[in-house]
Amino acid sequence: MSTTEKTAPPVHGGTVFDTGYQRYEGVREGRKRSRAAIYKDGIRIAMGFGRGGRAKVLPWVFIGVLAAIALIMAIIAGGIDRYMGGGTASALDLPSHSDYYGMASMLMFVFAALVGPELLCPDRNDGTINLYLVRPITGSDYVIMRWAAFLTVMTLASWFPQALLFLGLCLNDPSPVEYLRTHWLDIPNFLVAGFAIAAYVTTIALLTASFTTRRAYASVFLVGLYVISAPVTMGMANGIGGTIGQWISMFNLSNIPVHVNDLIFDDISKVTSIAPARDLAGWIRVVWYFGWTIVPGVILWHRYRKLTP
C-alpha cells in the first residue's frame, strides 16, 4: 500500500435495540402495598387457591368436617325442640354453642398444625424469603402479615360452623323469633371465643414452623404435642389431685383456649368438665391463655424482625 494513501477513519457507532421496556409512571405504593400482597398471598396459600388439587383438599376437608359437626348438632337439637317443644334440647343438656369449640378444638389444632407451616417453611426452604426482603419491607412486616393471614383463615373456620349452628337452631325452633330474642347473646359470645381459639392455634403453629424449613417436621411435632399433652396431663392431674393436679391439668394444650370459652359462655363445656383446671379462678385461666398466646407471638416476631436477605 502506498504511503500516500490515507487510512479511512474508524467508524464509531452502535445499534439501539427496542426491548419494549417502559418507564413505570404509576403510583408507587411502597411498603403498604407489599404488606397487603404478603397478606393476600398467605390467605391463598392457607386455602390452596392457585395451587394443585392436593393443596386445596386439606383445608376444605377440615372446614367441611367442622361445619358437619355444627350441622349435626343443629339437626339433633332442632329436631328435639320442634317435636318435643321449645327448650327441650336445653333441658336435656344437649351440646350447644358453649360446647362446640370444646368438641371441635382438637380438629382445629390439627388443621392449624398441618396448614400453618405452609405459610413459613417453603419460603425459607426455597430461599423465597430473600426475595421478599429486597423489597421495602422488613422481617417484621413479613411475619406479621403471614400471621394475620392465617389468623383470618382460622377465625373464619371457627365462626362459620357456629353461624350454621345458630341458624339451624333458630330455624328449627318452633318460634324462631323468640329463639333469636332469647339467644342473641350467643352470637357475640361465639365470635369472641372463636377469635380467642384462632389466635392461640395460629400463634403456636407459626412459632413451631419458624424453627424448621420442613413442613412435615413442624406438623408432626405439633400434632404429637397436642395429642400427647391431653392424656399425660389428665392422668397425672387426676392421680396427684389437689391444687398441684389442677395446675398440671393446665398444661393440656388443647384445653387452654376452651377454658376461656367456658368463661365467655359462663358454662362448662363437655371437654373441660373432666379437667381439674376448671376449678381454678377465672382470672388464672385467662392469664394462662394470654401467656400461651402473647409470649409465643413475641418469640415468633423476634425471630423474624432482624431477618435480612
Description:
This protein is mainly α and about 300 residues long. About 70% of the residues lie in helices and about 0% in strands. The chain contains 13 helices and no strands. Helix 7 (about 140-170) packs antiparallel against helix 9 (about 185-210). The mean pLDDT is about 85.
Distance between the termini: 63 Å
Largest beta-sheet characterization:
none
Oligomer: single chain
By helix and strand content, what is the structural category? mainly alpha
What labels describe this entry?
mainly alpha; 0% strand; globular
What's a quick, concise take on this entry?
This protein is mainly alpha-helical and about 300 residues long.
Topology diagram in text:
Elements: H1 30-47, H2 53-84, H3 88-91, H4 97-115, H5 121-125, H6 128-133, H7 139-172, H8 176-183, H9 186-209, H10 215-240, H11 242-249, H12 256-265, H13 282-305
Helix pairs in contact: 1-7, 2-4, 2-7, 4-7, 4-9, 4-10, 4-12, 7-8, 7-9, 7-13, 9-12, 9-13, 10-11, 12-13
